[in-house]
Design a protein that fits this description.
By secondary structure, the chain is an alpha+beta fold. It is built from 6 helices and 14 strands. It has one domain: L-amino peptidase D-ALA esterase/amidase, CATH 3.60.70.12.
Length: about 375
């Protein structure tokens, strides 16, 4: 299964990083836990085509060294967790987890458990450290539905599965397609999944890197557009399709020293990359963006006010940042489609992999 660049039908204005993935932002790691279990009819205990994907901004204690972050809702028909505190405080203090809709509370609980294990003072106060107050923790979890292929009611993703995804996290190439949170998703009527891409800004943009990772689960076959070509109008649609509005989670990472406000600007640009692929953000979709910077870390409850070094005047390079986000999101969605193979799920429901050869033929015509 080829990524879009391997097909020779897609070009970008900005260059990619070495892995062409979110992990091109130094220190960022991605891990998956994939659950493919059982066949045939729904039992209440499967079959399962689901999982969890975790994104770590750095390899240290994220609660003690938080990162600047922002969130954005393109369309709010979703069950994300932790967004309000990110909006209010502008930082992340747990890894980002992506999963299936009904698994969100269980995955959030797992992130809280793991944060408490690493930071035993959470919920108890700072008597041992001399600091004031009681600490809580804000797990951030995104989701899309995999109910067409998997038994969502059973909610099989919890603490053990999140531990496994964290243990799998690497800073190198990212597994794409039918993995982790993308195991049971659909995109433009075809099999969706996890996709990623990156862009490196030129020297006048300080050489910063922008990375994107998506969990694609949205769109109708006729809407699919690749590099401006309405592919969906010319491909034979997948057989026995069941089309729903669906959703997408978009995660952005950068090593640029941006604060929460500036990261919020990047979040809003992600919608343009989504639109390039043909999406019109249906009313029943949950389309969410999370962005973070790895550069300025915020210590938990510092003894004094700490002023980090940020890009105090981003206007000269914001156009480059915007282009980088738009291109990376667009390409990540294409990769999520092309790297996904056909999956047969519960009750024989099937999502077919997007046929790369047919796509190339249409593009060349």
């Amino acid at each position: 299964m080829p990524r879009i660049r391997e097909l020779g039908i897609y070009q970008s204005q900005l260059p990619t990083g070495p892995h062409n993935g979110i992990t091109d932002v130094a220190g960022v790691a991605v891990g998956h836990f994939t659950l493919i279990e059982g066949d045939g009819g729904w039992t209440g205990r499967g079959p399962f085509r689901t999982g969890v994907t975790v994104i770590l901004p750095h390899q240290g204690n994220l609660y003690e060294a938080k990162v600047a972050a922002a969130v954005h809702t393109i369309n709010g028909f979703g069950k994300v967790a932790g967004f309000e505190q990110v909006r209010e405080l502008g930082n992340l203090e747990t890894p980002i987890a992506l999963t299936s809709t009904l698994n969100v509370p269980r995955v959030a609980d797992a992130l809280m458990t793991l944060a408490i294990e690493q930071n035993p003072h959470i919920g108890l106060g700072f008597a041992a450290t001399g600091r004031q107050g009681y600490a809580s923790v804000n797990p951030v979890v995104g989701e899309t539905s995999d109910g067409y292929l998997s038994d969502m009611q059973a909610r099989p993703i919890g603490l053990d599965e999140v531990r496994a995804a964290l243990a799998d996290a690497v800073t190198g190439p990212v597994a794409e397609g039918v993995v982790g949170a993308g195991t049971g998703t659909s995109c433009y009527g075809w099999k969706g999944g996890i996709g990623t891409a990156s862009r490196v800004l030129p020297e006048r943009g300080e050489g910063y890197t922008i990375g994107a990772l998506v969990q694609s689960n949205f769109g109708r076959p006729e809407e699919l557009t690749i590099a401006g070509v309405p592919i969906g109008l010319h491909l034979l649609p997948p057989p026995n399709q069941r089309v729903e509005d669906g959703s997408i989670m978009i995660v952005l990472a950068t090593d640029a020293p941006l604060d929460a406000r500036q990261l919020g600007r990047l979040c809003q640009r992600a919608a343009f990359g989504l639109a390039r692929t043909g999406s019109t953000c249906h009313g029943g979709s949950g389309d969410f963006v999370i962005a973070f910077s790895t550069t300025n870390r915020v210590p938990d409850r510092p003894e004094r006010v700490v002023v980090g070094q940020t890009a105090v005047y981003e206007q000269p390079i914001m156009s480059l940042f915007s282009l980088a986000v738009i291109e990376a999101v667009e390409e990540a969605i294409y990769n999520s489609l092309l790297m996904a193979h056909t999956v047969v799920g519960r009750d024989g429901n099937t999502r077919y992999g997007l046929p790369a050869e047919a796509v190339v033929k249409v593009m060349r015509e």
